[in-house]
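The record is given unchanged here:
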Amino acid sequence: MLSRATPNQLWNDYELVQSQASLTQFALALNGQILVLNEQRQIIWASEAFCQSWELGQTQDYLGRRFGEALGCCHVPQGRDGCGTSEACSVCGAFRTLIDSRKQNKRVVGECRLTIQRGNSSAALDLEVSSAPWQLEERSFLVVSIQDISHEKRRKTLERIFFHDVVNSAGGLHGALQILTEMVDLNNSDSRDLLTLSHRSSGDLLDEILAFRQLKMAESGSLVRNSEPLDAASLVRDVSDKMRVHSVGHQKTITVIVPSDSLPLVSDKLLLQRVLVNMLKNALEAIHSGQAVTISVESVKGGVRFAVHNPGSIPHDVQLQIFQRSFSTKSPDRGLGTYSMKLLGESVLGGRVTFISGPEGTEFTLWLPLEPPEESA
């Protein structure tokens, strides 16, 4: 462990870094929390955004201090020489990022869980720390950027807890209504119909919750594909039957075109079903009572092609935005249907989602390879 730089060395390094106008202007333009550290991991220079975030008004408030010391890490007093020397520092994400960046002589990004102590109060933070080596006039520095990701981490944790609890509650309700539906007096048609409707509605609720959870996982890259042998023709029939009893299918016709024989495919059944449901639901919402949509599947070179057609056409300005997240022509609280088709169909299932719209109607298609591509580690 290198001993700390002398006050004179610190000031000389500060003036050297401060003379680099491009760095200071770049940091100001980005409004980012940026530090320059010497070989002893002491702060030589800090951006204005960093100083404001951590209430460091003057250069002497940070010059010569280490990362955890400037931020107020609760473990600093436990070390023999401050930040980086306590037992807890061995598992600190920021410390390891700085050491790895110096050792490997390259940019390293890591996450740091930090508990800071300010007076009698403490706060838990989640930070993303990026460190890159910088050689300046034969002096070796590290340029470090910091981003507070506490809100993002907290949101993900709350989402995980919410989905776990609400899926369990909705699943329990759905199961209880299933039992009641089987127990109800068949001679009492009103009770039977009411329970059947309630059971179906609880199923739709559970399905929507699971769909949103899948979408969030797909966006974060944590959704794992579970591929298995499927019959594409049977899956299309199942999706059509499901949507015929859905509220969007009321008084509308769904025409199914599938080959007479089975159409083998290897894919994730639940995710593929989700994409097809969104395609069909989107088409049914675009038509009026008495109109019809068509869903089909066929074997094509190298894969399988699913298609959903409806008689309406999409205005050109809408076509340009059709797969954008949260874009919808229906209402401001809609807009995940076509977006999730694209995300799940391409990023997760490894296929290709396209559409064409004109005077003869609108058709969304999903092409999937017969065997899914290998998932990246």
